[in-house]
């Protein structure tokens, strides 16, 4: 069952049976201009996600693995996504999702977030979406068999519009 404790809903579910997404496609577009870069730590290492070019319909996004010095350590993967496709990445089944407001302290400081807790089989996934940084979650945690691990964390962001 979806519980939503925030001032307003940012968007309707993209399809019936899905929880509201944290951001509309228009909010993602406004928050992800050409040049926005997120440095992301995952279990595979560190990488960058860069909005290389944007238009009214979507963006060309480049993902690059980085070495310990922040230098490119592999090929750039470039992919086109529409703003609606990016919005739908955060579309979770309503029956398995709880949404609430929470603060998260991490590499980006203390941020106001929308926390999506999603139950999937024996696992629980927690997606933290920073309200001031529309787009991808800034942190993802996975709990399974009583053990929690961080599977994704944004450690730096640049090229974002002034808040």
Task: Describe, in plain words, how this protein is organized in 3D.
By secondary structure, this protein is mainly beta. It has helices at residues 25-31, 83-88; strands spanning 37-42, 45-54, 58-66, 77-82, 97-106, 109-120, 123-130, 139-144, 147-158. It is built from two helices and nine strands. The relative contact order is 0.21. A hairpin with a 3-residue loop joins strand 2 and strand 3 (58-66). Strands 4-3-2-1-9-8-7-6-5 form a nine-stranded antiparallel sheet. The longest helix has 7 residues, at 25-31. Helix content is 8%, strand content 48%.
What are its keywords?
9-stranded antiparallel beta sheet, mainly beta
* Helix share bin: under 10%
The helix/strand class is: mainly beta
The averaged pLDDT comes out at 90
Query: Tally of extended strands?
Result: 9
Give the H and E element order. Answer: HEEEEHEEEEE
* Morphology: globular
Strands of the biggest beta sheet: in what spatial order?
Answer: 4-3-2-1-9-8-7-6-5
**What kind of sheet is the major sheet?**
9 strands, antiparallel
Strand residue content: over 45%
Give the low-confidence spans.
1-10
In whole angstroms, the N-to-C terminal distance is 33 Å
Radius of gyration: 16 Å
Number of helices: 2
